[in-house]
Amino acid sequence: MFSFFDYKTFIRIAIKSFCSGNHEKTPLTSKRIVFLICFFFLFPIFQVINAICFKLDELFFPAFRDVQLKQPVFIIGNPRSGTTHMHRLLALDSKRFYFFKAWEIIFPSIVQKKCLKLVGKIDALFGSHFHRFILDREKRSFQDLNKVHPSGLFLPEECEFLFIHIFSTYNLLFLFPIKNEFDWFLNFDSMLSAEEKKRIMSFYIECIKRQAFFKKSDGQFLSKSPGFSSKVDSLYQYFPECKIIYMLRSPMEVVPSVYSLVTELYLSAIDLAVDDEMLENVYQMVKTFYNYPLDRLAEKETSSYYIVNYDKLAKNPKTLITDLYKHFGFELNSDYMAMLNMEDQKAQKYVSRHQYSLAKFNLSKTQIVHDFEKIFDHFEFVKDNFE
Question: What residues contact residue 82 under an 8 Å CB cut-off, 6+ apart?
């Protein structure tokens, strides 16, 4: 694991975090200083532990390297476009798919997972008090965030968080909002060298193989990550048999919803209000995550990808999933079909609590229509249904 870690970026961010010239947006308050000291002291220790556990995996469970990753499924698209909903809906098909839960991302080695699973079994014997304590803490800690993105240690989570372990993910931007750092994630395929892409993707493959071994699964790996929208070519390169699901939603809904999510994340991470520069970066990200994946997928075999309209998924999940399985040649089992029937019933009763206000973020409907004109026209999204 040591060979995957981005030492140069880690050291550079550590230095910049304490330099006076980088604190216009994140002033060095006592709280911020405590966070930085704790992070840059404890994070390396945790990664050393992970690296040792990775070596133990090779010693005790060498068979994980023989795992074959057959037709992995990657769910990509802009944040707030239904990637989480699709991921957790497909995750119900446990006979076909295996995936990462949040706690399995935090502890990526087989040794760690088996130890924690044993702890869970012991806790269950004594009434699951520790499990309930964790759920209660989650409910309190993530109360605001859960309104826009349901989170929890025992829920399926996006793979992008794995790359925190090697200090190679845009999610670090929410902890260290330093100008011109982590910009590469918007253009992963084109900006990074072949060597850097190999470093990151090889680590990812090792994590997936360990997860498959831990789950004792010979099924298909299921991934969800909006950040992978900049990795389309890399996904096809490192997973030649992969299937990609691209989630599509109207820019009128996506842009203000992403702004709202980023605002919550920024407040949670560094306790500061998001600034105009960050929002502009987010806007550019949204544009890239619309245009780049669709342009690249248009050049691939149609049997290898499927574009999902979020509204169809929200209103008729059973029909949408049935069509998707047919397109990919997947067989629907009876247990999963029964679950889809229940999901259909939930969909009929569901009423969204989200309100998308363009004015709240000083967004112009005219600007969005102009900047995303190709998306509106090609997919026939309504242009005038927001204030």
Answer: 247, 249, 308, 310, 313, 314
- The proportion of the chain whose per-residue pLDDT surpasses 70, expressed as a percent, equals 92
Cβ neighbours of residue 232 closer than 8 Å, sequence gap 6 or more = 76, 189, 244, 292, 293, 296, 297
Nearest Cα to 100, choosing from 75, 118, 125? 75
Number of other CB atoms surrounding residue 112 within 10 Å: 21
Q: Please work out, in degrees rounded to the nearest 5, the angle formed at the alpha carbon of residue 14 by the alpha carbons of 13 and 15.
A: 90
The candidate with the shortest Cα–Cα distance to 256, out of 70, 387, 69, is: 387
Tokens at 330, concatenated: 């997947």
Distances (CA, A) of 16 to 34, 107, 171, 202: 16, 28, 17, 28
Per DSSP, what are the bridge partners of residue 247?
A: 77, 308
195-208: average pLDDT: 97
pLDDT reading at 299 higher than 60: yes
pLDDT in tens, 118-159: 999 999 999 999 999 998 888 877 666 666 667 789 999 999
Secondary structure letter of residue 149 according to DSSP: S
- The CATH number fitting domain 2-379, selected from 3.40.50.150, 3.90.1150.10, 3.30.590.10, 3.40.50.300: 3.40.50.300
pLDDT tens digits for range 311-356: 999 999 999 999 999 999 999 999 999 999 999 998 887 666 666 6
The residue type at 280: E
Closest CA to 85 of 162, 156, 170, 171: 156
Please report, for the chain, the start and end positions of each structural domain, with discontinuous segments joined by +: 2-379
Tell whether the model's pLDDT for residue 236 goes beyond 90.
yes
Beta bridge partners of 220: 97
Confidence of residue 278 (pLDDT cuts 50, 70, 90): confident
**Nearest in space to 270 (alpha carbons), one of 176, 384, 364, 190:** 176
